[in-house]
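Fill-in record for Arginine--tRNA ligase.
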Amino acid sequence: MNTAIQQALSQTVQTLQAQGILPPDWNNNSVLTRTKDRSHGDFASNIAMVAAKAAGLKPRELAEKFLTNLPNVAEISKAEIAGPGFINFFLNADQRFAVLDQIATQQHLYGQSQVNAAQKIQIEFVSANPTSSLHVGHGRGAAYGMTVANLFEATGAAVEREYYVNDAGRQMDILATSTYLRYLELQGQILVFPKNAYQGDYVKDIAQSIIDQDADRYVKKVTDVYHNVPEDVQYAAEPDANGDKVILSGDKEKHIDGLIANAQQLLGEGYRVFHQAALNAILDDIKDDLAEFGVTFNQWFSEASLTQKIDEALNTLQDRGYLYEQDGNIWFKSTEFGDEKDRVVKRRNGQTTYFASDIAYHLDKLQRGYTHIVDIWGSDHHGYIARVKAAIDAMGYDSSKLTVLLVQFVSLWRGGEMIQMSSRSGQFVTLRELRHEVGNDAARFYYVMRKSEQHIDFDLDLAVSQSKDNAVYYIQYAHARICRMLEKAHANHQFDPAQARQFAGRLVLDAETELLAKLAAYPEIIIRAANAYEPHQVGNYLKELAALFHGWYNDNKVFSDEVELTQARLLLAANVKQVIHNGLTLLGVSAPEAM
């Protein structure tokens, strides 16, 4: 319906331009929205307010000219001016019921469109280092990324979901060496485990799997492994005035790097056994965890596969004059593209940096022909945006093709207290633990119920409560309630959807008009949520729809001696059920038939 009104307004703009009231080059950036107050009509446009300056008229004066020249729209009963210059449109009575026909025809496809059909979008999300199980912060990125992808698919875009596997960096070397040290411990050797190593019990499990396969094949003397390794950090017994640990001596970074170098030298090719065992075990765990969470990917892209692409990217930057050498390092001139400082891409020892891999990875993405690339990163990566966009522009591509969405951290609360977490120490709440405690549905829903850049305080007690305050329960209960109602109606032969449509005119209550309008607004919500990367718009819509339904159901008898009214109300309820199901599906949440 809004399309018909927009077309009528566009036609009116052309008429006013022909009359010389509006400039011929005026750009129409007005919006048409559904009204919140039904007394103000069904739709409202701000076009007269937006165009008033260009026309040299007061908004209400221009609105009068719009109404005078507005073509007839069969579904509109009237249009009137409101407030400072809004134009409000009222649908005729029959048009209010058109949504019932639309839902009956489209069923589970209702709400989907082709507005983004020209888009081929790659969305990369989660991409956590495969050094431990996914924690609750990763879970938010997973839920958010999957839902954004679902929304773009629902609006016609071709979407590819990708996980970037950081399998070639220093963190993987720390994990591999941590695994080797645990391997030595399990073989009876005594050592002081590094403070900067991975502490979790899962590292011991990986080490044990290597023992089960290869026994003591890779045992070396601990003294050789620790030979000439810089001292590990030593902390004072008491923290400083700010509560921070006081370093007395040593360096934890140099200590672990020394252990990595010795392990690689002593084990030779055997080092890859520990590296791959750790990578495979944790990556398999991540894949299983995400699959159980309803999050899947078209591609798991290996950082280790980028060797040639790194050379290609750096050669491209070199040929275009954006690299220089200083102090033995190779630098990228990122400041020429607005970054705060230039960035090293190759160190004096010949090793390329993480940033060089990022450049190569984005070059690879750009060469795959996507119309748009979406990266979903943790909020702590905010500083990387400018440098990555700088590299894209420097290589001759358009950085506007890249959108970076930042996902804020998640705090878990139970019993009014926040749960403390630390990934390196291994003391953190995993995504799997959260899912087992509150269920996939609550996790998927609450993860996307705020803008991605806003912090989430995840209340575990609320997420499992069966109350109106628990939004996901309240929405699912509306769906189950309607299922139970329809099951009863079908059992008693009280409901025939095809026949019920002719009685829709019996839906005359304000609450019924509100429900019909809410159902009709659903397709617009999906488009807005997709284009704004805001799944919470869908969640908020479903909360409002469920609240309208529960209020209507509690205040009015659906089953009565009036057959026509019963049929009409059952039809309305059935359509609410369908839209709730469609919306929950996009959010990755189930729509139970019984609760």
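KEY FINDING: The CA atoms of residues 417 and 459 lie 10 Å apart.
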